Amino acid sequence: MPGPTADLFADHALQQPAGREQIGEQSYVLRGYALPWIDRLLPELRRVLAQAPFRQMVTPGGFTMSAALSSCGDLGWTTDTTGYRYTPFDPRTQQPWPALPEALRALAVEAAAEAGFAAFAPDACLINRYVAGAKMSLHQDKNERDYAAPVVSISLGLPAIFLFGSHARADKPQKVSLFHGDVVVWGGVDRLRFHGVMPIKDGVHPVMGPQRINLTLRTAG
Ligand SMILES: O=C(O)CCC(=O)C(=O)O
Fold first, then answer.
1. Do the annotations mark residue 195 as ligand-binding?
2. What ligand 1 atom has the least distance to the C-alpha of 153?
3. What is the pTM of this model?
4. Which stretches are transmembrane (predicted)?
5. Where on the phi/psi map is residue 113: left (φ > 0), alpha (ψ -120 to 50), or beta?
6. Which protein residue's CA is at the shortest distance from atom 6 of ligand 1?
7. Domain 4-218 belongs to what topology?
């Protein structure tokens, strides 16, 4: 039976060449777009997570999310039994969320422009950490104040299958493989499409270790 190393190489063999792949009318996967930024991003990400460590959050329905979450930026997304919302303070410490790292903002603004959304001004970045088996159910990003701005989503570490649905939860979503350094941008007519992540396969990424980290930037306030 192949071990985690064999799986890792199998997944990497599937990685797409750099380029822009359209997955919706106003939605794109920018293959490998974040790779040139990784050396600047990782130390900044470590600083953010030292200040606001990952935590397991509970949904209003009482379920513990399998992905661990943190945030940075003027606003951070949180959930508990009372509902989903953005807050200016980390509920664990009552301190402001860590500032949005400049390299992260610049990468997101450039990626948004590459996908046709000029002047993206993110004020919130949700950070999701997936270990093997963790997933994200189909949902819409609806807690932002207006939907004119796109969502910019950066994948790091283990590969994932991203589910990109339509505007109805029941419609079968398309499955999009995402790899370390890929950036997905969706907005405009696609801004409220359902999306999620299938359970992450066991493995060890050469840079990120046994995890996938996703950084999702939005204009929330
Ligand atoms: O991890 C991902 O690729 C998607 C994350 C997501 O759906 C979200 O943060 O709303």
1. yes
2. 3
3. 0.93
4. none
5. alpha
6. 196
7. Jelly Rolls (2.60.120)
